[in-house]
Amino acid sequence: MNQKNNTYLQLIKTISKTLQLFLNVCLVLLALILSFLLIIELIEFLKILIADDGGDYKLFLANILIFFLYFEFITMIIKYFKEDYHFPLRYFIYIGITAMIRLIIVEHDHPLNTLMYSLVILILIISYFIINITPLERPVRSSSLFMKKE
C-alpha cells in the first residue's frame, strides 16, 4: 500500500513539474512576442514623431498606452519568474488601469461609457490601496522547479 502511494505521489510530482515546464516555455515565448511588438510600437512612435503632418495626438496617446501595456505584461512575466512562479496581483491592477485609460482616450464618444470606465479605474485604484494597506503575511513557498535546495 505504501509503495502504491509513493508511486502515485511520484506520478503527481512528475506531472506537476512537466506542466510547470510547459507553462514556463509558453511564457518565455509570449515574452519574446511581446518584446517584438514593443519594438514595433517604438518604430511607430518614431514614424509619428518624424511625420510632418502634425500627427493625431489621440493616436499618439493610444500608442503610448499600448506600449505601456506591452511593457507591463513583459514586467509581469519577469516578476513571475523572480517571485517563484507567482503573478503579483498589483501588476494585473496596473494593466487594468492602463487599459481603461487607453479605452477612455480612444473611445470617449459616449459620456455614460466614459463614466463607467472611470468608475472601473476608481475601483482598481481602491483595490490597489487595499492591497497596499493589508499586512504582508503570506505563506512561504518552499518548493521550486529550477532552484537548488540548500
User: Which class of secondary structure composition applies to the elements?
Assistant: mainly alpha
How much beta, percentage-wise?
Answer: under 5%
Task: Please state the average pLDDT score.
Answer: 84
Low-confidence stretches: 145-150
Count of DSSP strands: 0
Instruction: Report helical residue fraction.
Output: over 70%
Q: Return the domain count.
A: 1
Largest sheet: none
Q: How big is the Rg?
A: 21 Å
**DSSP summary: helix tally:** 4
How are the secondary structure elements laid out?
Blueprint: H1 2-50, H2 57-82, H3 89-106, H4 111-133
Keywords:
77% helix, mainly alpha, P_starv_induced_PsiE-like, 150 residues, Protein PsiE, disordered C terminus, extended, transmembrane helix
Brief write-up:
Keywords: Cell membrane, Membrane, Transmembrane, Transmembrane helix. It is found in: Cell inner membrane. 77% of the residues lie in helices and 0% in strands.
